[in-house]
Amino acid sequence: MIESPYVSIVSGTYNRLNSLQRMVTSVRSSVGVGVPYEIVLVDGGSTDGTLEWIEAQTDTVLIPQGKLLGACKAFNAGFKIAKGKYVIIGNDDIEFRYESILNSIAFMDDHPEVGIGCFHQNRHSPEYTCDKMPAVRGGMQTNEYYGQVCIVPRWLGDKVGWWGDYHTYAGDNELSCNVLELGFKVVPMEYCCINDFEIKDKLREINNPVNHYTGTHPDSAKWREKWTRFGLLGPEIRPSPRVQTPLKRVPRLLYAPLYEDRSFPHQLETKVGLRKSLSKHFLVTELNYRRDPEEVYYMTSMFMPDILLIQLHDPKTLPYDIINRIRLEFPHIIMVSWNGDYRENMVYDKSYMYSLRLFDISTFVCGDIEETYIENGINYQYWQIGYEEYNPIPDHKLDKNLYDILFLGNCTSKVRNQMGQMLRFHKEWKVGLYGNWPSHIGSNGNNQYKFDEGDALYRSCKISLGDCQFPKSIGYVSNRLFQALHSGSFFMQQRVQGMEELLGLQDGVHLIVWEDLHDLEEKLIKWLDPSMTSERARIARAGKEFVDRYHSFDARVEEFIQMIDEFRNKNTG
What we know:
- With 573 residues, the protein is α/β, with parallel strands linked by helices.
- The chain folds into three domains: 7-233, Spore Coat Polysaccharide Biosynthesis Protein SpsA, Chain A, CATH 3.90.550.10; 253-386, Response regulator (Rossmann fold, 3-Layer(aba) Sandwich); 395-551, Rossmann fold (3-Layer(aba) Sandwich).
- Strand 21 (461-466), helix 18 and strand 22 (491-494) form a beta-alpha-beta unit.
- Helix 11 (294-303) packs parallel to helix 12 (320-329).
- The protein starts with 6 loop residues before the first strand and ends with a helix.
């Protein structure tokens, strides 16, 4: 199980709400999509609305100290409650650039010999640099990097006491000294940088009062006195760590799904089941590559995943040359494609199959193409979609008899049009058709990708329906089947080849199968009869139990891991 949060970003703050908001916004962007994180903020008695704003956020933890106790006490308080595997030490006046936080995590996971990873910053010049401090190497005075804005394994920070007992400054030097003397490295990290916006402000004036400033800040004098030994200043650099890290590297996965057009912006928040299940086994970050396919390459080169999982439905959305570049430059990465759709003209497209030959594993939700793909040198695997989870609407808010019959899906074919007309013809039936339907049939609404609303509808009908628009397909079903059965709905599905063999769903046990519209009409009349109420409930219960066990995204990820293991064993055995 992946740690949650995986990383804690700790900062102090005091009456700099605008700067703080900019920093927090940059964290949310820089950590990527899918990596669990927390932002620990220690407030020194702000009066500008900072406290109220922090408390309104869902990803922040507030420590209100009530007054300025000095930066070291503030940060130490934050370090004490941080829960992440790693702790990033930041400030409220900086901005993390691009995916710097995500890249820093990957860097630290890959370099257990590093105790502090330093972010490049532009505090002193337009150039991004990392500062150095005095140190001792082989009995000679030298300079070594130290961590200002940096990332530290939490266990290591706890072991060395973080920022020690200084007041305002020298805490970062103290931490770096102790880490270096334990034999761990302090190094700048590639692709990791921040913008520093406040070089001189009111808070720094408070921290550097004129009457106390005589050329050397008291904290600096204290640090110099402590770390001057035998006429040399700074920590002694060790050749290797003196203690063993308890951390284990977590396998990383870059997940690049496809989202439809911007008509459904909420899908970014609701279509998350696969990513969340993958995150139980991998450190996952998600990339919506449709906006810029080149980002797949850039993210791969920075995040350096062990597995690249791309939802690839055609040869154009992600061009061949990008896939080939990744294949050539990162041969160690296991590349997996996933096609969750069925478009007969596309799955047999020669350019599409040519692209898929670059992947180690190509997965599909249909089985009829297997022989053709294997003949074309593609490692075909059948891998289905699962049901999305949601926050269910309470029972007392539902109209349990809202519909007799329910179908969620757009009218995209002549046969569906005919089905809609047949259902509306029976005036005695309360029929719910959701999606885009022609005016002569009528639509009851559109809740596409709103799985909580879909669940409420499935729980408020007697019978829900699924059809088969591709009779030649094998094992291909819409996700509405899994969503409806998971909701506990009595489901009637048009016959799908291979449904029992590939999905394990049995007619009369988990659902009812219908053949054509005439057969559907007859079975609807039968199963809507009040005498069938208890039998409908029995089948619905069996369907839900089966789908919850075998068709969740957790179950899908177990299948995915098995595919990966089999591939590795085949190619290393």
